[in-house]
Amino acid sequence: MAMNFDNYARDAKTWLHEFCTYLGISDEQKAARIFRSVLHAIRDRIPTGEAVHLAAQLPILWKGIYYDGFTVHEPVRIRHEDEWLEYIRSKDSGAGEADFPTLDHAYYAFHDVMAFLRKHLSEGQYKQVAQALHSEFTVPA
Question: Which Pfam families does this entry report, sorted A to Z (predicted)?
Answer without folding.
Answer: DUF2267
